[in-house]
Write a structure and sequence with these properties.
Distance between the termini: 41 Å
Radius of gyration: 19 Å
Shape: globular
Helix content: 25-40%
Number of strands: 10
Number of helices: 10
């Protein structure tokens, strides 16, 4: 039986009088592409922000790779093995694509600040390894030819790919993607789908928030559907797609 990589039980988050998450539980197996969907205001991004340390949960249990996991801050989350992207692209615009990925890789460096200052042999060797790994990740996401272009001069789709490469540079157990297909045309979405399958094949588990339900249904192994901060359905795409509660959530009353 495949082991659970991430198990979250009863996650809750309140903002003043608003209960944004109410007892959300998710179990993601190693090697899965796991989808999280729901109408606007359903709590998807709040859930992402809780598990990646941007928000502190009010309740819930968290286990990552068989060990208790406390999403207390983004840097600790990255060290624990979860990397994420954002709805709004957050790159260093004046750095090259290669430099952006190398920055992501430094969360796994051994030499630290002193090594960077002294530039001794071990530090130089590690820097070369970081550069080589960054180049291989740019190749994986399909933008190796743009390694030395500044990030702000890349196309929108390539910026999305670069952000994924930078997240992968941290060597995550779980890659959490927040709306990666936002703003993409049909051709770019097909390229994204192929990329995510390659990433899964390379051994990285993926958690995907996405508004494009067709993309999610054709890509994910299992899906959780949120509505008003609660789980209304969970299962394989075929079961979720025909669930009356899901149909009502998307086609019924409008959500804020």
């Amino acid at each position: 039986m495949t082991n659970a990589l991430l198990e979250i039980g009863g996650a809750s988050k309140r903002f003043g009088g608003l209960l944004a998450l109410s007892g959300v539980s998710v179990r993601i197996l190693s090697g899965q592409i796991y989808g999280l969907i729901g109408p606007n205001g359903a709590g998807k991004t709040t859930f992402f922000n809780v598990i990646t340390g941007l928000y502190q949960p009010d309740a819930g249990s968290f286990v990552l790779d068989g060990k208790p996991y406390s999403p207390s801050a983004p840097d600790k989350v990255a060290q624990a093995g979860i990397a994420r992207t954002f709805q709004n692209i957050r790159l260093f615009g004046e750095m090259t694509a290669l430099e952006n990925v190398m920055v992501g890789r430094h969360v796994r460096t051994r030499q630290g600040v002193i090594g960077a200052i002294l530039r001794h042999a071990a530090a130089r060797r590690e820097e070369a390894e970081i550069r080589e790994r960054a180049l291989s990740l740019l190749d994986l996401v399909g933008i190796a030819a743009s390694a030395h272009r500044t990030a702000r001069h890349l196309s929108y789709g390539d910026q999305r790919r670069l952000e994924i490469a930078r997240a992968l540079a941290t060597e995550p157990l779980l890659l959490a993607l927040d709306e990666p297909a936002a703003g993409m045309n049909a051709t770019e979405k097909q390229g994204l789908r192929e990329l995510l399958l390659r990433i899964r094949e390379s051994g990285t588990t993926i958690l995907l928030i996405e508004h494009d339900v067709k993309l999610v249904m054709g890509l994910c192994d299992r899906i959780t559907v949120l509505d008003y901060g609660r789980v209304i359905a969970e299962g394989v795409p075929q079961d979720v797609q025909g669930n009356p509660a899901v149909i009502e959530a998307y086609l019924g009353m409008e959500h804020a």
